[in-house]
Design goal:
A hairpin with a 4-residue loop joins strand 8 and strand 9. Strands 1-12-11-10-6 form a 5-stranded antiparallel sheet, with no helix packed on it. A 5-stranded antiparallel sheet has the order 14-24-23-22-19, with no helix packed on it. Strands 3-2-4-5 form a 4-stranded antiparallel sheet, with no helix packed on it. It is elongated, with a radius of gyration of 22 Å. It is built from 1 helix and 24 strands. The protein has 2 domains: 170 residues, no CATH class; 143 residues, no CATH class. It is mainly beta.
C-alpha cells in the first residue's frame, strides 16, 4: 500500500467514525428472516461461515477453507478466494430487486477479490457526512461459498457506539444454485489458491484456470500445466507430459519483484537429470523435523503458450501421505512483462 493510500485510509476512518453514535434507518424494507447480530471491534477479524450463519474460529486463513468471508476494521469485507485466501468464494452484486424476492442465484458473472482490493470491500454502505452515520445500501450480494452452495448476503444495519466498536445486522439465506454462471477470469490477476498433495495419486492443476482438473491420461492430456505427487512437482513437458511446459527458477526473491518474462533460459523436466521444479519449492528442518516452502519464484511456460508466475507460500501436512500446498499465482497473456 503506497503512502497516499495509507493517508486516505486514515482520513476515511477518522471521518467515518467521527461521531460516537449511529442512529440511521436502514434503506428499503427489512429482509425477512432471523438476522445475525455481530458485535465488532476495530482490532478484531471475524470469519463468517455462510452455511452456519455464524463466526467461526480460523487458525490460519491461508490454509483454512472453513470460512467464506471475513470482516475487519469494522466494515471491510474480504472473500475467501482470489488474492485474499485459498478458497473459491465468488460474489455478485444484486440490485433493483428486494432481498426476499431472490430465491435463485442469478445467472451472471461472479467476481472475487484481486490485487486491487476486495470485491465487496466497503462498497456495501455509504457514509453520510451530515449525520456521521454508516448507511447500508439497498443492494445485496449473492455469494458462492467454499462448499459450492449459494447464499444471499446483506448487511441491513450498522450501529457504531464509538470509533472502535459497533454492531452489524446481517441477513444470510441459502438460495438455489444457478443452472449456469461464469466466474471472473484469472488472467492478469494475482491470487492464492491451493493444490492437494498426495502419495496415493497425482493431482493435476491448470494455471490459467487456477484450479485442479481431472486427467484420464497424463501422457496425452493438454488440460494440465503442473502435477503434484506429494512433494514433487512435474511440468506438462519434457519427460513428464506431452505439452511444452518449462520453467525458470528465481531463488530467494520477492514475488512482486519478478516482473520480466525472459525469452529463453527455461528448463524442462528430464527424468535422467532433474525436474524443472521438482522438490526445489520446499526445505526440511532436521532440528524440528518440519517442512516449509522456500522463497523461490518460478516462471512457467504454460501448456497454452503463455506464462504464469508461481510461488509456494504455505503448506499443511495433516498426515504422512497427504497435505495441501498454498500457492501465489499470476497468469498473463502479455509478452515480456507481467
Amino acid at each position: 500500500m503506497n503512502l497516499l493510500s495509507i493517508i486516505f485510509l486514515i482520513f476515511s476512518l477518522f471521518v467515518l467514525f467521527g461521531c460516537s453514535t449511529n442512529e440511521n434507518e436502514p434503506l428499503g424494507p427489512e429482509p425477512i428472516g432471523e438476522p445475525m447480530e455481530l458485535a465488532v471491534t476495530y482490532d478484531q477479524i471475524y470469519y463468517i461461515n455462510l452455511a452456519e450463519k455464524s463466526v467461526v474460529e480460523v487458525t490460519d486463513p491461508l490454509l483454512d477453507t472453513g470460512w467464506d468471508l471475513s470482516l475487519d476494521i469494522l466494515t471491510r469485507i474480504h472473500l475467501n478466494g482470489g488474492s485474499t485466501a485459498p478458497g473459491s468464494v465468488y460474489a455478485a452484486k444484486v440490485e433493483g430487486i428486494a432481498f426476499e424476492d431472490v430465491k435463485n442465484a442469478p445467472e451472471i458473472t461472479y467476481m472475487t477479490d484481486d490485487q486491487n482490493g476486495g470485491y465487496i470491500g466497503e462498497k456495501w454502505y455509504y457514509y453520510d457526512v451530515t449525520t456521521h452515520t454508516v448507511n447500508p445500501l439497498d443492494h445485496f450480494y449473492v455469494i458462492r461459498s467454499t462448499d459450492g452452495e449459494f447464499y444471499k448476503f446483506k448487511i441491513s444495519d450498522a450501529v457504531f457506539t464509538s470509533r472502535t466498536n459497533g454492531e452489524l445486522t446481517i441477513y444470510i439465506e441459502k438460495v438455489s444454485s444457478p443452472s449456469s454462471y461464469e466466474t471472473q477470469s484469472t488472467i492478469g490477476r494475482t491470487l492464492t489458491t491451493e493444490i492437494t498433495l498426495s502419495t496415493i495419486e497425482s493431482v493435476y492443476f491448470n494455471l490459467k484456470e487456477a484450479k485442479i482438473v481431472e486427467v484420464t491420461d497424463e501422457t496425452t492430456s493438454m488440460d494440465w500445466d503442473i502435477k503434484t505427487t506429494y512433494l514433487t512437482v512435474n511440468l506438462n513437458g519434457g519427460t513428464s507430459g506431452p505439452g511444452d511446459c518449462s520453467a525458470i527458477m528465481y531463488e530467494d526473491v520477492e514475488f512482486d519483484s519478478v516482473q520480466a518474462i525472459p525469452a529463453d533460459g527455461y528448463v524442462v523436466d528430464d527424468s535422467t537429470t532433474a525436474l524443472a521444479i521438482g522438490d526445489s519449492w520446499w526445505s526440511y528442518n532436521p532440528a524440528t523435523h518440519t517442512l516449509s516452502p522456500v522463497p523461490n519464484v518460478y516462471i512457467v511456460k504454460t501448456v497454452d503458450g503463455h506464462h504464469a508466475k508461481l510461488e509456494f507460500i504455505a503448506k499443511d501436512f495433516p498426515t504422512q501421505s497427504e497435505g495441501v500446498a498454498i500457492i501465489k499465482l499470476h497468469y498473463t497473456e502479455n509478452v515480456g512483462t507481467f
